[in-house]
Amino acid sequence: MGVPLDHNSSHLRGARKAPAAIRQYLNAGSMNWTSESGVDLGTHAGWSDWGNVDCRGDAGDMGRVEAFAADAWRCGRILALGGDHSITAPLLRARPAQGRALTVVHFDAHPDLYPEFEGNRDSHASPFHRVMQEGLAGRLIQLGIRTLNAAQADAAQRFGVEIVRPEAVADWPGLSGPDPVYVSFDMDALDPAFAPGVSHHEPGGLTVREVLQALRRVRTPIIGADIVELNPDRDADGRTAAVGAKLVKELLARLVANDPG
After folding, report:
1. Can you tell me the distance from the alpha carbon of 168 to that of 144, in angstroms, rounded to the nearest whole number?
2. What is the pTM of this model?
3. Could you report the per-residue pLDDT of 25-51, keeping only the tens digit for each?
4. Judging by beta carbons within 10 Å of its beta carbon (0-12, 13-18, 19+), is residue 102 exposed, middle or buried?
5. Domain boundaries in the chain?
6. CA–CA separation, 86 and 130 (whole Å)
7. What is the DSSP string of 91-148?
8. Which CATH class name applies to 2-33+59-257?
9. What are phi and psi of 148, to 5 degrees?
10. Taking Cα atoms as reference points, which of 215, 228, 182, 225 lies closest to residue 85?
């Protein structure tokens, strides 16, 4: 599902154009539809593209995202293409009770734990404050964080957030066990050398291979995911859209194969 929403962004807009950019790259013939695990998504009948949420750039968009996602969750697992990071909160609000505590694995340069940012509680800098405050996840693990200021460090301590800094991601042991996982991937978790098409460049980030290796160490069922903060307006050569398309394939393969890794 595409979520072309970016009015909760600070600094720059443009992320609303990302679902179209990722889909265009997926279907351009540059890559095939087979994941690194060998799942051929081009012939796999276990998924479908539901199109986009009808985002209108107003305060009602968060409710529209939640309603659309609720229908999608009822049909199975979801993969959402943002859009800015504010979409994660309504996506998780829409999730029906699953009987086990949800773990969120969050890749990002920023912890996004502000209680509000620039007067906006729905800011893309605040989704994980909402997620933890509302009890939408029992555990939050953040990988790649390199902008932890005092205000967000206080929130991380209060909510028991586990933060893995970029230099430690290669040694992160991963996850195992029965509890389901939701992956939220902000494209600026990657170093700008690999993903220049984002609104907030934060050097010193992860490589694409480090991300894929970390995902392989999630040896638990992944039940949903989002890929957010790609800004096509800053992606002159399509490099970031290519990475987004790669992540779609690898995450979608996990979702449709019900593969614990």
Report:
1. 8
2. 0.96
3. 999 989 999 999 999 999 999 999 999
4. buried
5. 2-33+59-257
6. 10
7. HHHTPPP-SS--EEEEE-SS----S-BTTBTT-TT-HHHHHHHTTS-SEEEEES----
8. alpha beta
9. -80, 105
10. 228
